[in-house]
Specification:
Layout lengths: L27 H13 L38 H26 L18 H9 L3 H4 L5 H5 L3 H15 L7 H12 L7 H19 L6 H17 L9
Protein name: Gem-associated protein 2
Function: The SMN complex catalyzes the assembly of small nuclear ribonucleoproteins (snRNPs), the building blocks of the spliceosome, and thereby plays an important role in the splicing of cellular pre-mRNAs.
Family: Belongs to the gemin-2 family.
Length: 243
């Protein structure tokens, strides 16, 4: 079949190789003959002569992202535990979705609370808001009232702030973990490429923390296992999943 591509599409008859190419062709047939003559003068394969000394070196070093760090055998979650967490998480998301639907259709009364939240792009403000380091901030723990006040762009942006912040930590504090979990619960699908990248970064960061787990408590290791599990098995980033 490939040989058929080399067959001529038009029959143009004999071609005079001494034809004067400087003159304007007087017919379509003569024009095609000139095209054939010019094509015969072209090499079948052309290789560019590249002067690599004139090529600029890249100014940005791109570091490839690896997958999750494998958990030490004694702290890795079982498959049964992972599947249970995914099922439980799915049930919570369904419950929240039903509540939102009832509020939207006025089947359930809900008055938005007055909460002084930081601006969406205020990374430091949201980190302080979600960390719960003192009694005043503890009242902003994630609950139905607080999370229902967040639209989807806010959810995605806050999650990005928190994931970027935990990269510099040795563990995820309880209050911060609550917020990350709550944001995952109300995160809408399908995921945008930016959100997908953020979730993968969350899983990788948790896996690094877990690998350095000599000072972590059982509950803190469970939090790391949970976030890796949800990103990998619920949000379908299966290449990051624990066995």
């Amino acid at each position: 079949m490939m040989d058929s591509f080399g067959e001529p599409a038009f029959i143009v008859g004999e071609i005079d190789e001494n034809i004067n190419l400087s003159l304007i062709p007087t017919s379509g047939e003569e024009y095609i003959k000139r095209v054939v003559l010019e094509a015969q003068k072209c090499a079948d394969v052309v290789v560019a002569d590249i002067d690599r000394n004139r090529m600029k070196k890249p100014t940005i070093d791109v570091e490839p992202l690896s997958g999750c760090v494998e958990a030490p055998p004694w702290i890795g979650p079982t498959l049964e535990w992972q599947l249970y967490q995914v099922s439980d998480f799915s049930d919570i998301r369904l419950y929240i979705s039903q509540l939102k639907s009832e509020i939207k259709t006025l089947k359930r009364k809900w008055i938005p609370p007055k909460i002084d939240t930081p601006d969406m792009d205020d990374e430091k403000g949201w980190i302080e808001f979600c960390s719960g380091n003192n009694a005043e901030k503890a009242r902003f723990a994630p609950n139905l009232n607080t999370i229902f006040c967040l639209n989807q762009p806010m959810v995605e942006q806050i999650l990005e702030h928190l994931v970027e912040y935990i990269k510099s930590l040795e563990k995820i504090e309880y209050e911060l973990g609550q917020w990350i979990y709550a944001l995952l619960v109300i995160l809408e699908m399908p995921l945008t490429p930016e959100v997908c990248s953020c979730l993968r970064s969350l899983a990788r960061t948790c896996s690094v923390m877990r690998a350095k787990s000599k000072k972590l408590e059982v509950r803190e290791i469970g939090t790391l296992n949970l976030f890796i599990c949800l990103v990998a098995r619920y949000f379908r980033q299966l290449d990051l999943a624990d066995p």
